Amino acid sequence: SAINFLERLCLTWMFFFMMCVAERTYKQRFLFAKLFSHITSARKARKYEIPHFRLKKVENIKIWLSLRSYLKRRGPQRSVDVVVSSVFLLALSLAFICCAQVLKGHKTFLSAAYNWEFLMWEAALLLFLLRLASLGSETNKKYSNISILLTEQINLYLKMEKKPNKKEQLSLVNNVLKLSTKLLKELDSPFRLYGLTMNPLIYNITRVVILSAVSGVISDLLGFNIRV
């Protein structure tokens, strides 16, 4: 019993240590995204002591897109995604087991000690996933903020009226900004759940298995069929 307890304690510590490393990586990504969103604002760039430039030249737009791509790839990517996917799969498995136990007999569900352990693990994993989902969602909002490009387009239109002799050059920059806006919309991955990278297989399992299990539990508790 003592050896079993120590093994479970060590495995639990290692698992939560990897989750803390993943959360730290997500915090760094959010910090990079936050500072990146302040580059085109003179006031915020001065406040955070970072470089500032406007998107009024084609060269500046190229630098802005390259910097965005570099910051999104900075830091560990695949290892952190593997940790998050593993946590998500474990939470899915525990949720499925709990739903199956409730369907088997919801009156005797809380009488078993291992069911309490499952619930504690599920609560801890859900809290961790909610934290990562919040950080990932905020990071995606910073990188996918198209209002920056729209603001620069408005500034270009105002400059065209003030400087008609540079209308051709400013029109070229405006066309590049429009293409950049379309590019940012196309780059959004369809397999992202509030900023968490989702494998297509995991995405489909979530939709089919878990929603079906939750539908069965709700139908069993309420007494009539409900399809989620």
TrEMBL record:
Keyword terms: Membrane, Transmembrane, Transmembrane helix
GO terms under cellular component: endoplasmic reticulum
Highest taxon of source: Eukaryota
InterPro entries documented for this protein: PHTF1/2
Membrane-crossing residue ranges in chain numbering: 6-26, 82-103, 115-133
Name used for this protein in its record: PHTF1 factor
Native source species: Bombycilla garrulus (Bohemian waxwing)
Name of the coding gene: Phtf1
